[in-house]
Amino acid sequence: MEIDRSQNPLFLNDYITYIDVIRGKAKRTVGEYYQDCMLFLRWLCCTNSKTPLSEISSCSVADMTTMDLEKVSVSVLYDYIQYLRDVRGNTPRSVSRKLSAIRSMFQYLTKTKGMLTKDPTQNLEMPSVKKGLPKFLTLEESLRMLDATATESEKDSLRDYCIVTLFLNCGFRLSELVGMNVGDVDFFNRRILVLGKGSKERIVYLNDACLSALHEYIQSRENPPEEPKALFLSRNRRRISRRRVQQIVERTLTAAGLAGKGLSTHKLRHTAATLMYQHGGTDMLTLKEILGHQSIATTEIYTHLSSEQRQNAIENNPLAGEKRRK
Fold it and tell me: Dihedral angle at the C-alpha atoms of 61, 67, 68, 69, nearest 10 degrees?
């Protein structure tokens, strides 16, 4: 998203420049952080001026200074959490994400720039987020999905099959797949260069299924496309959009009879990780590198076991055959 800096207070512009240029955050992440910080500042402006919160979108914060932030306390932040939850209907996960952006801004203004004397987020308790097991497709459902990529257009079918194949085999993020270029694919060395979160590059090796799907799809593309570097193209021969890929996945899930299960492109990432862990015997450290996780703790959510594995674990207990001796 484009950020209109003329509508921002100076300290916010400084912060946005910092996370963009110095921290190297992805443009989408910068945009999300900006929106989250702006929402908080507008809420703060409305609260201080006793303006109805129904008019929050039109509240101007351009003249705000760090003096306004000096008055923010933990109790003020709790009031903001209540606003996000009760008025905007945000889930605990969404609230936590918004608070993370605000915390990052306050840390920058206090520790990095010294523009504030205190950081009210330092002792802020974040809302507890319920951690459930990630949703994923079984092996049989994954095969059904691959078979359901066929469309009336052969070229679209090859593209869609390739997209689903990469999701299910390699566990790419949506943003990573959309951003791929033809030059990133190294057929000789059987690998692809991926630009992950925070603009961090990593190498992911490709199996036969991925190489075959990529080769057939690339051969089917019209030459020259409008964006020759882009790997996946829309019908206008430009780089495919995030939304178009989501639509392809949604259509394919429906065709496979898997609609209504809360599945998405990110759930295909969960599926790939689960298949590699449960069927491929992949260890956590290797899985961490493949998925591009910063912390092994993030990868450990994939150590969940199938019901069959749990049952086998109990049945294979060395005491499983013991009975009470009379």
Answer: 110
Exposed e or buried b per residue across 280-305, where buried means at least 16 C-beta atoms within 10 angstroms of its C-beta: eebeeeebbebbbbeeeeebeebebe
For the cut 60, the answer to whether the pLDDT of residue 309 exceeds it is no
pLDDT one-digit tens code per residue, 268-282: 998 898 888 887 778
Q: Residue 264 corresponds to which tokens in the numbers above?
A: 């998405």
Distance CA 68, CA 109 (A): 13
Residue 150: Cβ within 10 Å count: 15
Catalytically annotated residues:
173, 197, 266, 269, 293, 302
- Supply φ then ψ for residue 47, to 5 degrees: -65, -45
pLDDT at 308 over 60: no
Flag whether pLDDT at 249 surpasses 70: yes
Helix (H) or strand (E) holding 202: strand 201-205
Q: Which residues pair with 195 in a beta bridge?
A: 201
Query: Following DSSP, what letter does each residue of 5-66 receive, concatenated?
Result: GGGS-HHHHHHHHIIIIIS---HHHHHHHHHHHHHHHHHHHHHHHT--GGGGGG---TT--H
Q: 285, 278, 248: which is closest to 264 by C-alpha?
A: 248
Q: Considering only 115-124, 253-262, 309-318, which range has the smallest mean pLDDT?
A: 309-318
Number of H helices, E strands in the chain: 14, 3
Cβ neighbours for 100, distance < 8 A, ≥ 6 positions apart: none
Judging by beta carbons within 10 Å of its beta carbon (0-12, 13-18, 19+), is residue 89 exposed, middle or buried? exposed
Please report the DSSP string for 251-316 in residue order: HHHHHTT-TTS---HHHHHHHHHHHHHHTS---HHHHHHHHT-SSHHHHGGGG---HHHHHHHHHT
